[in-house]
């Protein structure tokens, strides 16, 4: 049951999906489960809606984890964040205010087929599991498949490459489903957050070009506040800045699409660990990594309740 | 054991090319091998003074050691046995017991 669920170990897709329904069953006033579509292999794409169901037009925050299958700390964080929010609601004033005034749409595993495959076959699989054309290679990079400067610099048109952009934009059912959901809720969603690993960075648009976003000063200060909040937990430093100059140029990314779709605050977190473990962050470090990142996400969400 | 020990003996190399020539050489060396890019996500994204982590199958580790030495490109072994690290990550035995 919920009280025995271990948030400090990695869970399989089946366990995470069962956990989502258990959270709805035990906290119906704060958690509901939505299905936004089906994956390439036919698995449901579940999203948790977290927050007090008060006004239908509340501002909203979208957060997805597990876009790249091998980045297991992502789904662990999404679960942790939900647990943390629910357990501190009514006890912590910041959390209470956030859940009363905002809706959080949280997708613990975006790339369900890839994540399942990384548990059962290839621990370092990154892409989706779709099959296109006659190519013997599977999968599309779900962070190169969005309809923004699609398949330009920083993406590959070769199906066997890890940054394969796909046969066309939104070719991946997972990308298409989330894009459709965000388009439908575009008036309410004010922040888009995507959780990746392991460069220890907080990135914002643009990825596909070196230009500066129009609301740069607001986004920059939100990022600065977020990495300061993260640092305050365990003294871990994250770099932050535009993805194109802080990491590398890439086209068809979700944060560029979200931003171009009208979401003013779009971020990609690159969680731990760049020091010793890469994708293999041990379970013993799930707690500190998730605790520090929870502070950063709360800082971003709180910023939405203030004027910039 | 997890993944039927398919990663036994595999290694992750950490390489940081310090100039344009080393970037060129590294792209050439890695372009001729089947490696899994951990960061960045592909050879074409390698750039100066940026960390490159690549997962190399056990049968190819010796070749890469030799090539990097030959090209005088500085590197270190980031993970010396991937299978062990995988088992450590999930505390394989203990966490299964716990579950």
Task: Report the sheet with the most strands of chain B, covering strand number, pairing sense and barrel closure.
Answer: 4 strands, antiparallel
Beta strand count of chain A: 8
Shape of chain B: elongated
> How many strand elements of chain B?
4
- How much of the residues of chain B is beta strand, in percent? 15-25%
Strand order of the largest sheet of chain A: 1-2-4-3-5-8-6-7
User: How would you classify the quaternary structure?
Assistant: heterodimer
Residue stretches of chain A low in confidence (pLDDT < 50, at least 5 long) are none
Q: With helices defined by DSSP (H or I, 4 residues minimum), what is the helix count of chain A?
A: 9
How would you describe this structure to a colleague?
The complex is a heterodimer of chains A (308) and B (99). With 308 residues, chain A is of the alpha/beta class. Chain A is 35% helix and 17% strand. An eight-stranded mixed β-sheet of chain A has the order 1-2-4-3-5-8-6-7, with helices on both faces. In chain A, helix 6 links the parallel strand 6 and strand 7 (239-242). In chain A, helix 2 (73-88) packs across helix 9 and helix 6 runs antiparallel to helix 9. Chain A is globular, with a radius of gyration of 18 Å. Chain A starts with 12 loop residues before the first helix and ends with a helix. Chain B is an alpha+beta fold and 99 residues long. Chain B is 37% helix and 19% strand. Chain B is built from four helices and four strands, in the order βαββαβαα. Chain B is elongated, with a radius of gyration of 15 Å. Chain B starts with 10 loop residues before the first strand and ends with a helix. The mean pLDDT of chain B is 91. Chain A binds chain B through residues 6, 9-10, 121-124, 126, 141, 154, 156, 161-163, 198-199, 247-248, 250, 274, 276-284, and chain B through 2-3, 7, 12, 36-42, 44-45, 47, 50-51, 53, 55, 78-79, 82, 85-86, 88-91, 95, 98-99.
């Amino acid at each position: 049951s919920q009280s025995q669920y271990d948030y400090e170990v990695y869970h399989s897709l089946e366990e995470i999906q069962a956990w989502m329904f258990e959270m709805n069953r035990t906290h119906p006033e704060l958690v509901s489960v939505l299905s936004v579509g089906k994956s390439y292999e036919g698995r449901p794409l579940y999203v948790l809606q977290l927050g007090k169901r008060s006004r239908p037009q509340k501002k909203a925050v979208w957060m997805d984890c597990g876009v790249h299958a091998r980045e297991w700390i992502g789904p662990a964080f999404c679960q942790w964040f939900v647990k943390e929010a629910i357990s501190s609601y009514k006890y912590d004033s910041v959390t209470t205010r956030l859940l009363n005034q905002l809706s959080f749409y949280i997708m613990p595993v975006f790339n369900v087929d890839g994540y399942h495959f990384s548990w059962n076959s290839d621990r370092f699989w990154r892409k989706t599991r779709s099959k296109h054309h006659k190519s013997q290679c599977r999968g599309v990079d779900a962070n190169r498949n969005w309809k923004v400067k699609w398949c330009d610099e920083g993406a590959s048109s070769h199906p066997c490459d890890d940054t394969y952009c796909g046969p066309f934009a939104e070719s991946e059912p997972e990308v298409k489903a989330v894009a459709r959901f965000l388009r439908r809720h575009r008036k309410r969603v004010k922040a888009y957050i995507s959780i990746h690993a392991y460069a220890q960075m907080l990135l914002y648009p643009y990825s596909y070009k070196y230009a500066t976003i129009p609301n740069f000063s607001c986004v920059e200060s939100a990022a600065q506040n977020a990495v300061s909040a993260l640092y305050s937990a365990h003294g871990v430093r994250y770099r932050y800045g535009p993805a194109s100059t802080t990491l590398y140029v890439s086209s068809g990314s979700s944060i560029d699409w979200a931003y171009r779709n009208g979401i003013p605050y779009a971020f990609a977190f690159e969680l731990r660990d760049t020091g010793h473990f890469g994708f293999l962050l041990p379970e013993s470090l799930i707690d500190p990594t998730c605790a520090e990142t929870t502070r950063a996400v709360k800082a971003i969400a709180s910023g939405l309740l203030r004027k910039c | 054991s997890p993944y039927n020990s398919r990663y036994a003996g595999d290694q992750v190399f950490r390489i940081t090319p310090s100039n344009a020539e080393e970037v060129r050489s590294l792209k050439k060396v890695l372009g001729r091998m089947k490696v899994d890019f951990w960061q960045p996500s592909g050879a074409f994204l390698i750039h100066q003074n940026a960390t490159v982590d690549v997962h190399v199958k056990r049968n190819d580790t010796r070749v890469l050691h030799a090539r990097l030495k030959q090209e005088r490109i500085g590197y270190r072994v980031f993970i010396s046995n991937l299978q062990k690290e995988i088992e450590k990550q999930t505390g394989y035995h203990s966490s299964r017991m716990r579950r």
